[in-house]
Amino acid sequence: MKMNREWLLNILFPSRCPFCGTVISSDETTCQDCSSIEIDNLIRPMPLKEQMSVCCYAAYWYQGVVRQAILRMKFKEEPSICTFFGKSVAKIVRERLPDMTFDAVTAVPMTRLHQMRRGYNQSILIAKSAARELHLPYRNCLRKVRHNRIQHRLTAEERRKNVRGAYCALPCAAGLKLLLVDDIVTTGATLSECTQQLLNAGAVQVVCAAAASSVPEKATD
Ligand SMILES: [Zn+2]
């Protein structure tokens, strides 16, 4: 029965290459042509308010086929691409931080209305996929409490002001070592604000990771 169900699901919703959309077999991650696309494995510095500065680990530069994949993931109702990016996030975290331990993976939230409109939050799906790969639980530790302006046309300073007070951490964050996941890191304003909120709520450690990082000087999305 299980095989039949899987077989049927595979016919109805075949696995597709996250980069180009070509149908692939269920045991492949990308198509043959895209298999040469290598993970970029980046570190982006991220100023965290006054006292400390942290960084964000990102799997890819947000450009070319990666950018197209992320746009399909966000706007073309292809949430399955999140699974691929979650695995990429897990890979770079394992490579960069082999000795670091985490209690849970969490994600940058959207407002309820925004998530209802899209039907899913891509950052949560990426975080859940990364959690599965890293054998960690996923926990919702943040809530978006205020709608803010879309960030992409704002300067770094405007972004910082724009996200201030937009997120609050939930009490369950207390005492946890967390991996905080977002889809794209640009200036790091959102991740910094969320990190600060989690630390204020008693999180012991917050490490940030994103599927992709905007290319400096061309930070448009
Ligand atoms: Zn492909």
How would you describe this protein?
The protein is of the alpha/beta class and 221 residues long. The chain folds into two domains: 1-36, no CATH class; 38-213, Rossmann fold (3-Layer(aba) Sandwich). It is 36% helix and 20% strand. The chain is built from seven helices and seven strands, in the order αββααβααβαββαβ. It has helices at residues 2-12, 64-75, 81-96, 112-118, 122-134, 156-163, 189-200, and strands spanning 42-48, 52-61, 104-107, 142-144, 167-169, 177-185, 205-213. Strand 6 (177-185), helix 7 and strand 7 form a beta-alpha-beta unit. Helix 3 (81-96) crosses helix 5. The longest helix has 16 residues, at 81-96. It is globular. The termini are far apart. The mean pLDDT is 88. It binds zinc ion (ZN). Zinc ion (ZN) is lined by residues 17, 19-20, 22, 30-31, 33-34.
